[in-house]
Every structure is written in structure tokens, then in C-alpha cells.
Amino acid sequence: MPIKVENLSKIFGKKTKEATRLLDEGYSKEDILEKTGCTVGVNRATFEVEEGEVFVIMGLSGSGKSTLVRLLNRLIEPTEGSVEIDGQNLATMNKEDLREIRRTKMSMVFQRFALFPFRSVRENAEFGLEIQGMEKEERSQKAEEALELVGLGGYVEQLPSQLSGGMQQRVGLARALANDPEVLLMDEAFSALDPLIRKDMQDELLDLQEKMQKTIVFITHDLDEALRIGDRIALMKDGSIVQIGSPEEILTNPANDYVEKFVEDVDRSKVLTAEHIMKRPETVDYDKHGPRVALERMREQGLSSIFVTDRSRNLKGYVTADEARQARESGIEKLSEIMKTEVPTVDKDTQIQDIFNIIHDSPVPVAVTEDGKLRGIIVRGAVIAALADGNEVDADDA
Ligand SMILES: Nc1ncnc2c1ncn2[C@@H]1O[C@H](COP(=O)(O)OP(=O)(O)OP(=O)(O)O)[C@@H](O)[C@H]1O
To answer: Which top-level group of life is the source organism from (predicted)?
Structure first.
């Protein structure tokens, strides 16, 4: 279910008209508070979240994330603007329809889940279905399915106090999933967890999402978390969205100084992947070409080695210029006789740090393959440049 947000604003306080006017005139959030007593919660947010997307809203404390996410399910009334869920405008919906949509189409997961201490894990996961008035048997079954999904299948009879913090948070997630909502709103859902468990939960959410393909809006103040799980990220400052983009766009192409400062300390080696620094490979054909063609191509391109593929671009190996030259001199005509088949290979999602470790003692560039087919090559200079400053480098210049 896609979400479409247009010009959405929330100004807290009484003199919202005056505050809006000052906002339009370019006054800052602080000035507006001083002059009108109003707080700018969200300022004219416009974006769309696609079905199946993980859309992260990120920003420092007070930047407006929670207000924005509560505007999405109208727990907060907007001062201006519109939210459309699956083409339906939330603002014009009556209370009953709104309640219905919150119950069945959108679920919210919070940082600290209010689990009922004297109810079992299953009963806790059933809660949303219970208030919908679903029969006991049906809701138990749905709750158990959701608990199974989050890896708590064996704990349904336990009490929350018998679970770790991470497991309790999974119960919260299961409660949201039991509703089988199309939209999941997750407000700092993993922020209370310690770092290792948090990372597990992030991985798990991504795994789940691969199967579920929900529309997820995920709020976090943690940049690493945003970069890890977001398909796209909206970065907020003082109520305004300052940039929306994929993690790579935010890192490599910050919209302004604020974003640049924000992402300054990110460990890019963990975010940028093979896909970002690979270039188009020069190859020779295993079945068609011999050492002569290989040597010519290497000379033309100034290469000291070249990859060999078959007609379907399956990677077979590589030959070096020295060996191709020797082969020519000794009359060898087949690449198979001189080709080396041990090729350093990564896939497109391999992190740069890992590529660095491989390329470090490799005599040839690293091959990037997908299902055995050669998609690109990575040269050492590109890895070093990316590690050095994170800017997307043209591998040719590196
Ligand atoms: N009910 C309210 N009344 C008045 N001001 C509010 C209200 N709720 C939020 N605000 C103000 O709106 C701004 C945005 O707050 P919000 O809670 O959305 O930020 P946030 O990014 O979620 O912060 P945090 O990460 O600390 O939760 C803040 O300046 C906050 O003080």
C-alpha cells in the first residue's frame, strides 16, 4: 500500500496561522517559538513511500520524526497538507473508517512495548486482534504464526519477564505483524536494544521484509541503522526534510552542508559496496579468442591482465599479458592452456572493506559476479579511493 504525503505540516500551539506565515517568510524554528509561542513540529513534508519499500525517517532528537509518523496515521491532526494511503485521503476519512484503517491496514511498533506482564507471549501477540473482536481460536492461530515469523515459535506460553529485551521487542513486532497490516510504522523500534541484538533485529526485519513486502516507515535517530535498513532515507532538521535519497546518494551526494556534516563520520567501507565502485569489464571470449586477441585487447586498453568469459558471460578465468605474450611466442593458440581459473570474486553487495582485504594481495582486479556471470571488475585504486574519502570515484581515474 503506497503512502503519499503532500505539504504536510504540524505546528503546535495556538497562533498557527501566524507561525505558518513566519515560516514562509523564512524565520527559523527558534524565532517562531519566540514570536508566537508555537513549535514547528513538521514543516511541509512531501514524499511518497512505495509499496514494499523501507522508508527511513532520520534526524536528531526534536527534528520532528515522531510527529511526522503520527501524522501518517492521524494520531496527530495536521495543521496543513494531506496524507493518502492507497489513494484514500486520511484527512477526509470519518472516525470509524480511520479506526478501521489503523486496526487493519497499519500497525505501529514502538521503542518500549507495553507488554502485559501476566499474559503469555501468545496472548500479548494477540492483543491487536482481540480488540478487533476476533474469535479466540483464530486470533491464537494468527498470533502463533506471527511469533513463528519473528523466531519465537517456541516461547508462546512464556511470560514476558521470562524473555530477554530483544525477545520482548520481537513480541511487539509479532503483535504488529499478527494484524497482517500493509503498512508498518516503526518508531525507534530497536533503539532500546543493545547493539548486537539491535543488529540481529535489523537483519531479521530485512529478511522478513523480503518475504512480506510491506510498506515500512521506520523512524530512527541512528544514522548507521538508517543506512543499513533503508531503501531510502529522509533526513529531517527542525521539522523540515532536508534530503531524501538512497543510503548511497545521501553519503556520496549530500544535499547541503548539514547533511554533509551529518554523514561525515560514517564508516563508508560498511555502506558502499562492490556495485558502487565496479566498472565495465574488458573481456575475451573463451571459445572464440586466442592469446593474440587477448594480447591486442590488453595493449589497446593498457591492461596487464584480462578476464575470460564464455558467450553467456560466465566467468572462466583470466590471462596475464606476460603469459599471453609467451604463449604467442611458443605458438600456443588456446586460452584454456594459459588461463588461470582461480579468480578473486565478490558479489555486488560485498562491502568495500572486505574487497580491500581480497584485492590487497591479488595480482588482478577483483571480479564482480552474479550467478557466475561477470558483471564488473574492481581495481585496487577504486577501493582505496572509496575507503579514503567515500566519494564515488571514477575507477578510471583511480
Ligand atoms: N504535543 C506537543 N506539543 C508541543 N510541542 C511538541 C509536541 N510534540 C512534539 N513537539 C515539538 O515538536 C518538535 C518535534 O518533536 P518530535 O517528538 O516529533 O521530534 P523527534 O525527532 O521525534 O524527537 P525524539 O527523537 O527526541 O523523539 C520538537 O520541537 C518538540 O518539542
So the answer is: Bacteria
Residue with cell 500551539: 13
Taking the C-alpha atoms of residue 370 and residue 181, their distance in angstroms, rounded to an integer, is 34
Q: Exposed, middle or buried, 344 (CB in 10 Å: 0-12/13-18/19+)?
A: middle
**Nearest CA residue ID for atom 4, ligand 1:** 12
Q: Which CATH architecture has domain 274-389?
A: Roll (3.10)
Give me the amino acid identity at 131: I
The pTM is what?
A: 0.73
351 in Cβ contact with 273 (< 8 Å): yes
Cα–Cα dist 316/86, whole Å: 48
Ligand 1: atom nearest CA of 59 is 21
Residue nearest to atom 10 of ligand 1 (CA): 41
Nearest CA residue ID for atom 13, ligand 1: 41
Mutate to test the pocket of ligand 1, among 32, 67, 111, 188 (most ligand atoms within 8 A of CB): 67
Ligand 1 pocket test target in 10, 11, 12, 186 with most atoms within 8 Å of CB: 12
Residue 106: CA atoms inside 13 Å, Cβ hemisphere, count? 28
Which cell goes with 127? 492483543
Q: At what angle do helices 195-212 and 165-178 cross, to 10 degrees?
A: 20
Scanning the structure block, which residue is given the C-alpha cell 503498512? 183
DSSP assignment, residue 334? -
Residue ranges of E strands in 207-361: 215-220, 232-237, 240-245, 283-285, 305-309, 315-320, 345-346
Complex ipTM: 0.94
Q: Please check whether residue 240 is in contact with residue 260, taking contact to mean a CB–CB distance below 8 angstroms.
A: no
The beta-carbon contacts of 189-197 under 8 Å, at least 24 apart in sequence, are 189/109, 189/110, 189/111, 189/218, 189/219, 190/111, 190/220, 190/225, 191/111, 191/220, 191/221, 191/222, 192/111, 192/112, 192/165, 193/165, 193/166, 193/169, 194/165, 194/166, 197/164, 197/165, 197/166
pLDDT tens digits for range 224-252: 899 889 999 999 999 999 999 998 888 88
Q: Measuring CA to CA, which residue among 58, 33, 38, 116 is closest to residue 242? A: 58
Angle value at C-alpha 95, between 79 and 63, nearest 5 degrees = 35
CATH C-level class of 3-105+181-266: alpha beta
The type of residue at 62 is G
- For 39-73, the pLDDT digits (tens) are 999 999 999 999 999 999 999 989 999 999 999 98
